[in-house]
Amino acid sequence: MNILQKIIAHKEEEVAVRKLMVPEKDLFDTSYFARRCLSLKQNLLTDNATGLIAEFKRKSPSKGFINEHADVLSVTGAYTRFGASGLSVLTDHEFFGGGTDDLVAARVNEIPILRKDFIIDTYQISAAKAMGADVILLIAACLKPAGVKELARYARKLGLEVLLELHGEDELNSVCDEVDMVGINNRDLKSFKVDIDRSLRLGKMLPQHVVKIAESGISDVAMIHRFKEAGFHGFLVGEAFMKAQHPGEAFRDFVTSLTNPKI
């Protein structure tokens, strides 16, 4: 099995266990479930927004630990303070070293938060709402188009926004009216190789009205400008910040370079 297949196989087992531990009806009674979600889409379309969705990620399947002991409160607080349009928090533990507690801790920030995980079941969407997320990620490579539509419709019913992630032309048929934004992952989830040009080509195939987000492998401001010129509205960046000793400071310096190119 490739990496993605291993992740999904593990996720199926994980979801089954969590359903037994915490029935879905119990999620409906949590304090965050009644909370009104913040709009990442609106933030990305706001004039003078950085468009940066800053990610908190401890490890990856391809590189192992990136920043094992990073503090979620200090990092996401700095991301918010220095101009992020949104936060992305990994909640997968087995492959990315994250967890529900990370997103709950990050919720102290008044900014849209994306639950970054491999969602295959409506239970995970209810859980995302219960932990304080505003946006969920649906990965086209993990789902059939009908599955994307079903899960996205359920998320929207709960007031959550939906980011659909694509990796190739064969996944374009998963784009539907039920999703709020479409992300193009520059990293192939099967080989984990990065190809910026492939993502730019795929972006041109999306309808003009779609809010487009470039994801993964973005390491410098020049890449952001290339994606902006190609009509992208958002830029999900994690490793470039998380690999630094002080991710928040790395983010601050990146924003300074992005907004003040002469400095």
Secondary structure layout:
Elements: H1 3-21, H2 24-27, H3 40-44, E1 52-56, E2 59-60, E3 64-65, H4 72-81, E4 86-90, H5 100-106, E5 113-116, H6 122-130, E6 135-139, H7 145-157, E7 161-166, E8 181-185, H8 196-203, E9 212-215, H9 221-229, E10 234-237, H10 239-242, H11 247-259
Parallel strand pairs: 1-4, 1-10, 4-5, 5-6, 6-7, 7-8, 8-9, 9-10
Antiparallel strand pairs: 2-3
Helix pairs in contact: 4-5, 4-11
Describe the structure.
The mean pLDDT is 94. With 263 residues, the protein is of the alpha/beta class. The longest helix has 19 residues, at 3-21. The protein has eleven helices and ten strands. The chain has an eight-stranded parallel β-barrel, surrounded by five helices.
